[in-house]
Amino acid sequence: MRPSILPTFLYLALYFSVALSFSVTVGSPPTQCGSLNVTWTGGRAPFEIVLIPVYNIPRNISVPSTAFSNNQGSYQISPIPFTRGKQFFLTMSDATGFGTGGISELLTVGEPVNGASCNTTNPTLAYSFSLPSSLQQCSSYIFNGYDGAVLPVTITVCLIEHSGSSVTYTSFASRGSVPGGDVFFLHPPSTGTSFTWLADVAAGTTIVFSMTDAHGISGGSSDTQLVSLSDDASCLNPTSPSSTITTIPSSTHVGSSTSSPSQPSTSSGVSKGTIAGAVFGAILAATAVVALAVFCLKRQRHGRSPYGFATSRNSRRPNSVELDPATCLSRLYPLQPELRASYPETSSTSPSVYPSEAPHTLNDTLDQFKH
């Protein structure tokens, strides 16, 4: 009996509903030495927030267990340890893995409010890494110079999407992705301090790399790297980064903030189009699961042969029966054996003689015409 595929689809539907249940929202734009509110729904404790500045050192923030109750969480990051004009992004993780809450937009630190002051000195790096080669589509890209790291190292690849006047940050799901599908890691071998990666990323994509060693110590994050065009597109496939990505939304706010000259202003909040798209996608997925379930049930109910055994694509046709024309006629016309005699016998077996059939002679036939 062929196993039903219905449980598989139900499992996948349940998996995606759980994976998408951890949603995070970032509050008003950050300011130097100010605070930043982060709220979330779902997920599993313990939680951790990582602030990843461009060309700087990421900051890990452990979220206390008291910040999460009744499937709702709220935490205030204070003070923001970056100077005005600095760009960074935020990712949130839970017990199921790194980055499962998604990635925020690219945030720009504004002017300090009311003369706020704090320590904005960057931590000392235990080691660093170099990116000596040009980042081109489907070309080799080299990471080296991380001699001070405890091997093996892990490289986090982060994608920045430029869409109209807004710039958002996320990391993309691909090979070796964690539950939730938001973070992509490169895992260099545990020997040597140089690693070559085939950049299977489309031209025009902007990327930021960060590195951590085997002890979880950061080697910093890179500046933004733009993927340039090449004459090779053979490495691109459906798992390559695309322009359709999901980021942690920012809550609606009033007021303005100072941004760097090269960074256009970013609209905050979730657009109606995004909400409509998410709702439509959820309805479409649910419809597909229900349709597949109905199809499987109907196939199980009606997929049996009327002869009492399950049908199959490899089933054999019944053995054919060879019929002798004479025998067939004798059954249809038992009182007219002269018709049967006009057909040649096709079998070596003599035709059966029925009791009602008496032998006829030519004289008998002539006598019938006389009478």
TrEMBL record:
<keyword id="KW-0812">Transmembrane</keyword>
<feature type="compositionally biased region" description="Polar residues">
    <location>
        <begin position="344"/>
        <end position="353"/>
    </location>
</feature>
<feature type="region of interest" description="Disordered">
    <location>
        <begin position="342"/>
        <end position="371"/>
    </location>
</feature>
<protein>
    <submittedName>
        <fullName>Uncharacterized protein</fullName>
    </submittedName>
</protein>
<keyword id="KW-1133">Transmembrane helix</keyword>
<feature type="compositionally biased region" description="Polar residues">
    <location>
        <begin position="362"/>
        <end position="371"/>
    </location>
</feature>
<keyword id="KW-0472">Membrane</keyword>
<feature type="transmembrane region" description="Helical">
    <location>
        <begin position="275"/>
        <end position="297"/>
    </location>
</feature>
<feature type="region of interest" description="Disordered">
    <location>
        <begin position="238"/>
        <end position="271"/>
    </location>
</feature>
<keyword id="KW-0732">Signal</keyword>
<feature type="signal peptide">
    <location>
        <begin position="1"/>
        <end position="21"/>
    </location>
</feature>
